[in-house]
Amino acid sequence: MRLMNFNITVPHYSRICRRARILEIPEFGNINNDEHLNIIIDSTGLKIFGAGLWHEEKHGLKKRREWRKLHLVIDRNSQTIIAQELTTYQESDPATVDNLLSQITGEINSVTADDAYNTNEVYDSIAAHAKGDVVIAIPPQINSALFSVN
Fold first, then answer.
1. For a tag on the chain, would you pick the N or C end, based on fewer CB atoms within 10 A?
2. CA 1 to CA 16: how far, in whole Å?
3. Is the pLDDT of residue 23 over 60?
4. 67-75 and 80-88: which strand pairing?
5. Please, what is the Cα angle at 119 between 114 and 123, to 5 degrees?
6. What are the backbone angles phi and psi of residue 3, rounded to the nearest 5°?
7. Is residue 100 predicted with pLDDT exceeding 80?
């Protein structure tokens, strides 16, 4: 704060750590089941830290780090997480879409995702859970090719 010329006091990091043992998260408003949902599907990696991490770094031991994938469905309008699933890193993004969509009770109006979700499995899951016409915005994968069926 001194480098930025802010004249405010900042607590020591250890005090913040002790205070942050419990994090209270406020409840967000519930999604109305009757509204048309515009959803975004994506995933992120979560690294698992354990008690042995410091020991490994101090003594130079190297082992493969473990991590999990958190798959999320977000309502684009309210920016609320409406479905989630935690999997191992071996689980592919398209394989979780069916479970994620089954958690949604509202009617899906549009689906947006990145190119990792551009598979037949995802399109089939969306069609199975849709109650009407759904706008799907998923870009093609980088190695996609155009072909025609006669």
1. C
2. 16
3. no
4. antiparallel
5. 95
6. -65, -30
7. yes
Read off the pLDDT band of 70 (50, 70, 90): very high
Cα gap 40→104, rounded to integer Å: 12
Q: What is the mean pLDDT of the chain?
A: 79
In whole angstroms, give the CA distance from residue 115 to residue 129.
Answer: 20
Give the burial class of 49: count Cβ atoms within 10 A of its Cβ; 0-12 exposed, 13-18 middle, 19 or more buried.
Answer: exposed
Distances (CA, A) of 42 to 35, 46, 61, 98: 22, 13, 34, 13
Please tell me the distance from the alpha carbon of residue 71 to that of residue 93, in angstroms, as a whole number: 7
Amino acid at 48: I
Residue tagged 């082992």 (tokens): 63
Determine the Cα–Cα distance for residues 19 and 12; give it in Å rounded to an integer: 11
Q: Is 147 left (phi over 0), alpha (psi -120 to 50) or beta?
A: beta
Is the separation of the CB atoms in 102 and 125 below 8 Å? no
Domains in the chain, please, with CATH? 32-137 (3.30.420.10)
